[in-house]
Amino acid sequence: MSLWDDLGAEERTIMQNAIEEAWLCHVIGDYLGHASAGGAVWTFGTDEDAIRALIPRFAAITKDLVVRNLIELIPTERYDDWPEHVPMTEAEIDAALADPGTWVSVHATGPIMLMTTDHADRLLGR
Q: What's the domain of life for this entry (predicted)?
């Protein structure tokens, strides 16, 4: 059994985005996306109302993955200091996840990158 077997659809989307070091604001659009061009292209969902409706659920799941030491949230201004960056505090994480702008625009509150942790990388065999 692998880590992937224990994750729900939302968790898998978040983890995949963390592996890709993607922006948090694209996660829900990715989840709402669909294959097009005969499966050759992934088209992100862009319905802002649908994205906003899922923010509370994705915020809770993202926080759980942080608590489980599977992902890390990195604000852009701290990414330049990688790997010596200062991690976000719990209060900063909670504020970012509660801010709808974090989820709908890379420019709203400053982009936040998802990354896997060393622990997750070991579980994933990376």
A: Bacteria
Q: Give the Cα separation of 48 and 104 in Å (integer).
A: 7
Q: How far apart are CA 74 and CA 115, in angstroms?
A: 7
d(CA 17, CA 31): 10
CB 76 within 8 A of CB 122: no
SS3 state of residue 36? strand
Count of alpha carbons within 13 angstroms of residue 89, beta-carbon side: 3
Other CB atoms within 10 A of residue 5 CB: 6
Question: CB burial class (10 A; 0-12, 13-18, 19+) of residue 80?
Answer: exposed
pTM: 0.90
pLDDT, averaged per 10 consecutive residues of the chain (126 residues), comes to 87 96 94 92 93 97 97 77 73 93 73 91 90
Alpha-carbon distance 109 to 102, whole Å?
6
Based on C-alpha coordinates, what's the Rg of the chain?
A: 14
